[in-house]
Amino acid sequence: MRPVLQAAHAAWSARDWQDSGERAGVLLRGARTRVLATVLDNGPAFVALDEAALAAGLVHVPLPPFFSDEQALHALDAAGVDTLVASPLLAERWPQWRWQTHTVAGETVCVAPRQATPRALPAGTVKITFTSGTTGRPKGVCLGAAALDRIANGLVQALGPLGIERHLSVLPYAVLLENVAGSMAARRQGATLVSLPTRSVGLTGSSQFEPAVFDRALREHGANSVILLPQMLRAWCAWLARSGQRASPALRFVAVGGAAVGAPLLAQAHALGIPAYEGYGLSEAASVQTLNLPGASRPGSAGRALPHGQVRIAPDGEIEVRGSLHLGYLGDPTPVPDWWPSGDLGRLDAEGYLHIEGRRKNVLITAFGRNVSPEWVETVLTSQPAIAQAVVLGDGQAWLDAVLWPVPSPAGVPAPAMAEAVAQANAALPDYARIGHWAYADLARDTADGLFTPNGRPVRERVLARHGPALSAIATTDDPSDDIPPSGINMSFHTTLQQETQAARQRLLGTPIIQGALAGSVSVSSYLAFLREAYHHVRHTVPLLKAMKAALPAHHRWLDEAMDEYIEEEAGHDEWILQDIAACGGDAEAVRHGQPSPATELMVAYAHDTIRRGNPLGFFGMVHVLEGTSVSLALLAADAIQKPLGLPDAGFTYLRSHGTLDREHTAHFELLMDRIDDPADQRAIVHAANMFYRLYRDVFMGLPMPQAARNAEAVA
Questions:
Q1: Is the pLDDT score of 123 beyond 70?
Q2: Whether residue 459 sits in one domain with residue 593
Q3: Is residue 334 part of a domain?
Q4: How confident is the model at residue 707 (pLDDT cuts 50, 70, 90)?
Q5: How many domains in the chain?
Q6: Averaged pLDDT for residues 82-104
Q7: Mean per-residue pLDDT, 210-228
Q8: Domain endpoint, select from 458, 491, 524
Q9: How many whole angstroms separate alpha carbon 127 and alpha carbon 145?
Q10: What is the SS3 assignment for 208-253?
Q11: Is 95 exposed, middle or buried (0-12, 13-18, 19+ CB in 10 A)?
Q12: Gyration radius from the chain CA atoms
């Protein structure tokens, strides 16, 4: 008999799992729980507690580990949570509570009581899911057991003919789609639920996805079904195509939801052996409502209503649903109507397939009076292999604008390829919906900075705030009376710099010690060695900036003020590093009077040589490398290093300060780069940046690695 649940290092029979559930129930009763919140990674502990809470009629509030402290504390207070269960690492975020350690389904968890003010909840509430939404403060959706039952049972009925025996959870369980359509449905249909930490299946935080890791887990565990977001499917398809592979033959069903998918991506997936099918749902209806199925599929649609759901289109085009509705919003006594207005626009074709046409509130009205749903144009854009994400703007304009994020790849996406992608998309659109101006940016950075929700939907206000000025600057270069949309690519130099150094950047970030540090596999000696080398190049930053300023030719004197600001802000950072070394038990004075490694010495020497012998603006290449790397890694690395080693906060002044400061610096740096228009200067900066990426990588390769990182290097 196959196990009912498979974890990383254990499996449970039905009887053993029943025992685990009963012990989880005893734990909750002992804690006198009424409202439980969990902050857990995927794994058997979450599943056991979720099922035990439902069986006892308690309220469960699953919180994503990637919620900020402000978001999490808001949710805890708003829901009146009286018991909090977290993983040991996550529990360290809240030292103010009295944590006790317990074992649930073989996993160690920390449990803390909370003094909570009871909240008025809709009668029958058993789960509160907090939508990430498009603002910093999440909204609580109250769900009842009957709605959850209808969803899970409807999926069992619809998917029964596929004979799914093993479901691999990839999305976090705190995401309702995986919690209900994945865990609950798989358990009810008698399949083995494969429940692994999200990092083991390629997902880090809310946005970083490694398709190679995911594909390996899929094959190792013989999964028959998974649930993915569109951007995950897109990355996986690209990886399979590059590696010349097809998907695991064990796969029978890949559900894709959270945002529009598009027929071209689905066609590519099927050509690679991925049985991908698009669906549609919303938290207010307890998750999935419509779904394409083998033998009943219309690519480009979101499928037909599942057995538990009913869908109709209101006279104004808004999609309305009923059949498994929520009980109300947390703190909002407004009654739930019989038919719920989704906020999405769509249509039902003659065979009952639902076609999503965008969010009602996002509709753009062009200068010619045409209504355009940006999601429609974005789906056409992201159907191009080169484009991973797109946001279309342009309310009140003659032609639309777009911010584009290229598909991540080792070699990057060259500008001509992106231009061709936009041209191909425009050819498939009517004239009033074509893209006139566009710019593209760093997907990893923008995702980390909150420009996308965890399910991949853009936060349009943030995208506009960050990229709107660049688009406006591009638009001003065109004749405003021109009634023909531009055909050439409009790309700032900063974007060119990012694109032409992307491959070198990926080689740096892929070094075993950086990857090991981010995974928590690090030693004190490795961290102290990093700080030693950081000191020996950071102490040269101010002298290098002064040398660059002195060497600037007369026509670049406009940079003087910016250079003075850099010099003022960078002063004293080398002393921060020495203080960090001392706080972590190192010999700061020995580092001050010691020598750098050969790799660090060469990098600093190259910087001086670039200024004195070459083009002094080439030093901006080093600024791009060091500040860009800090933005990508510093804050993440600080947390990943500090917690496993138990080092004091005083030992991370440099990393945490630079991670915050360099976010501001990079925005200023971007504006500076976009004012450099001499091709010779631009070439010098790009060349130097690629060299500095290579030299900085050599610095990291020379650091002592803990055993886990050595093993990773050996495998690679």
A1: yes
A2: no
A3: no
A4: very low
A5: 4
A6: 91
A7: 95
A8: 491
A9: 8
A10: EECHHHHHHHHHHCCCCEEEECHHHHHHHHHHHHHHCCCCCCCCCE
A11: exposed
A12: 27
